[in-house]
Amino acid sequence: MNRKDFLTKLGAGAAGMAALSSMPAKLHSMTQGRRWNSRDYTWISSHTDDDDEARRRLEKIKRAGLNGILPSGNYEYWVRMAGEFDLDVHAWFITLQRGSDNYLIENHPELFMVNRNGDSSIDKPAYVGYYKWLCPTRPEAKEYLMNRIDQIMELPEIKSIHLDYIRYPDVILPIQLQPTYDIVQDREYPEYDYCYCDACRSKFRDLHGEDPMDLEKPEDHEAWNRFRYNQVTHLVNQIAVSVRNRGKKVTAAVFPTPDIARSLVRQNWPDWNLDAFFPMIYNHFYHKPISWVGDAVAECRREMPATTALYCGLYVPEMTAIEVSQAYEYAMENGAAGITIFPDHTMSEEHWNYLSATMVKG
């Protein structure tokens, strides 16, 4: 069944009218006359081989006014399906977190990060079993990732490479997530503090004359923190050059503000030479009100280059329908170029209806 037949079966025109008619009159009137020149997306992590199910999801995405999708895999499939709906496809690439990469785990365990206790993230992963991380200091790890990205770029329809998990493991989890793992992280504990592998220790020792394993308070050591920021930054900028040489753009999903990114995951993303950033401004993770979305976007914009786009990431399972719409407006009013929702399959009809009524584009 192609898209035309699918829409006939679905009755998309009637569905669209029903969506507007179900919108509360007050909200509908508030959105009239306001125009945003946004481009908006959704991350897709839940995959399917059922074409009709994929079409139902993509039809909702298209009808709401989104411009594209960022699937985390099955790129050829999503390129084919999204083409029916004139939606762009950006390849969401899980970068340093390689917990499902059995080839690397079995054949090159030396390339993975080591915590301050001396434990490999393969043997004692933090928090969850898949938290097995490549070390960005290792040239072989960089080469492996570059080759994987080159393979993705062989698909001409892919608009960009979107980097994720391009950081260190969380040395401190967002406050809402700590009870999930029955932990309290009031400081940096060694089992969550990375990376102290031989390559990192040797390189830092050559640069600064110290072994990071010998530091009394590594969390307060400016040179050691900067060293780790820079290992990720060098990798990102190297990837960016390669991707752009192939005629593609490169973006990244990053932690919600520069300060949070640096303190929780050693991610100094304002230094990255990318085409756009997608900060994951998940307010509930940090026990923040919905208005914090706007504050975080404004904070990001203060450190970002003025010409670089920002697409505000929203975690919708913990947001009401009206909060998603409010978050969109807070983001746009503070300098976002659009939003990216996650995950699309948790959006109810009410969520889609509120969002599409708010996202009136000029």
Portion in strands: 5-15%
What is the arithmetic mean of pLDDT? 92
Q: What is the number of helical segments per DSSP (H or I, 4+ residues)?
A: 13
For the sheet with most strands, the description reads: 8 strands, parallel, barrel
Q: Please trace the helix and strand order, writing H or E for each element.
A: HHHEHEHEHHEHHEHEHEHEH
Spatial shape: globular
Residue windows where pLDDT falls under 50 for at least 5 positions: 6-33
Structural class: alpha/beta
Find the count of extended strands (DSSP E, 2+ residues): 8
Query: What percent of residues adopt helix (DSSP H or I)?
Result: 40-55%
N- to C-terminal distance: 33 Å
Give the strand line-up of the largest sheet.
1-2-3-4-5-6-7-8
**Whole-angstrom Rg:** 21 Å
Q: In words, what does this structure look like?
A:
This protein is α/β, with parallel strands linked by helices and 362 residues long. Helices cover 40% and strands 12% of the residues. The chain has an eight-stranded parallel barrel with strand order 1-2-3-4-5-6-7-8, surrounded by four helices. Strand 2 (68-71), helix 5 (75-83) and strand 3 form a beta-alpha-beta unit. The longest helix has 24 residues, at 222-245. 41% of the residues are buried. The model is unreliable at 6-33 (pLDDT under 50).
